[in-house]
Design a protein that fits this description.
Length: about 400
């Protein structure tokens, strides 16, 4: 197989590199930063992602599990932390052997990087654009004016993908109408909450919490907002504490115990569905292909799934065009369903009084079996695509 260039050293790009290495697929990964640092906030890795990481290398999975915090239950509550839906994860552990895990995004990225052959990684290489050559290869142009000739390109460069913008110039992001603050508090939450991933809905706001490791707790806060607004760092904590003053005290405690420099604000957006993820020998994965709102906690997991399936389709077919086409046709049904479900959940989470009450009643009395079936379907990996 000819050399493939992966653009982007985030979770999707690094996992793709690891999958390629396992299957002996030649590649070079290009990442725009000159050093991987522990930046960002938290991320959930559900069993579908964990199965891929275990397939790559059981030692990789164990390293990630040691660095994160696994949940015994997933709790949806009102703003007072009174349960709306309390889902034990015992049935998930019975099926897959583990449950959803929370980990710092930067720690996850550095752990993935530590398992990669560094000879295949080129840092400080910010993608600018590509050109198609007469021999059907590509020339990649980087921000430092350097170039790289390659036979194929994997765009793993996130929701604002430059690869996608050139490949599909009509692609559009959709702003959800919500803004999100994320932070990591230097605070140890109560032991009865430490084994839960929980989200509080109410008062047209949303607040999520999950322990990452000893003394570190990840949180996110969501509200309706105009896009692209900026915060005054001197007042952002006071603003958030006032905004969530009617919430359970754990909320303001976490905000208070978070360094201002560790509070990150951004739009919640997703990508309008693309009719395909590739053209010729260029293919998109992860958020570059199908960015979704974070409400189901599946964005990172689906990028990891993409890496697994894409690598195996390449390994099992003679041409990249066929592999890319098979990859899209295989993945589109599941991914599109999750994008739509996540978008709906985003609307449900931040709503007004009467609808909030109706929503809580529906969620409280929805059949548990149906919820469990949906989780099992989401977490299942098709192991028939590879030879063990």
């Amino acid at each position: 197989m000819k050399n493939i260039s992966i653009i982007g050293g985030g979770i999707g790009g690094l996992t793709t590199a690891l999958c390629f290495e396992k299957l002996g697929i030649a590649y070079t990964l290009f990442e725009k930063v000159d050093e991987l640092k522990t930046v960002g906030a938290g991320i959930w890795l559900s069993p579908n992602a964990l199965q891929v990481l275990e397939w790559i290398d059981p030692k990789l999975l164990h390293s990630i599990q040691r660095s994160g915090n696994s949940f015994d239950k997933i709790l949806l509550a009102n703003h007072k932390l009174e349960p709306i839906r309390d889902s034990s994860q015992d049935f998930v552990k019975d099926v897959f052997g583990y449950t959803t895990l929370a980990i710092h995004r930067g720690v996850l990225q550095k752990t993935l990087y530590s398992f990669i052959n560094k000879a295949n990684i080129k840092l400080d290489k910010g993608f600018e654009y590509y050109t198609l050559n007469n021999d059907h290869s590509y020339t990649i142009n980087f921000h430092d004016k350097s170039i790289q000739k390659t036979n194929a390109i994997i765009g793993a460069d996130g929701i604002n993908s430059k690869v996608r913008q050139q490949l599909f110039p009509d692609s559009k992001l959709r702003y959800s109408g919500q803004t999100c603050w994320r932070g990591v508090a230097d605070f140890e939450i109560d032991s009865n909450l430490a084994s839960s991933g929980f989200t509080l809905w109410g008062k047209k706001l949303q607040f999520g919490v999950s322990k990452l490791e000893k003394g570190k707790t990840y949180w996110f806060a969501v509200m309706l907002s105009e896009p692209n607004l900026q915060d005054n760092k001197d007042t952002v904590k006071t603003k958030l504490m006032e905004l969530f003053s009617q919430y359970h005290p754990i909320v303001t405690t976490l905000i208070q115990n978070t360094s201002i420099n560790k509070i990150i604000r951004g739009n919640i957006s997703d990508l309008e569905w693309l009719g395909k993820w590739h053209a010729d020998n260029i293919c998109l994965i992860g958020d570059a292909a199908h960015a979704m709102t974070p409400d189901l906690g599946q964005g990172g997991a689906q990028a990891i799934e993409d890496a697994f399936y894409l690598a195996n389709f390449i390994d099992n077919t003679n041409t990249l065009d066929t592999a890319f086409n098979d990859f899209y046709n295989y993945r589109k049904k599941k991914v599109k369903k999750l994008v739509e479900q996540s978008r709906l959940t985003s609307k449900m989470a931040v709503t007004n009084g009467p609808l909030e009450l109706l929503r809580n009643i529906i969620l409280k009395y929805s059949p548990e079996k149906a919820l469990q079936k949906q989780m099992i379907e989401t977490y299942t990996i098709d192991k028939t695509v590879y030879q063990a």
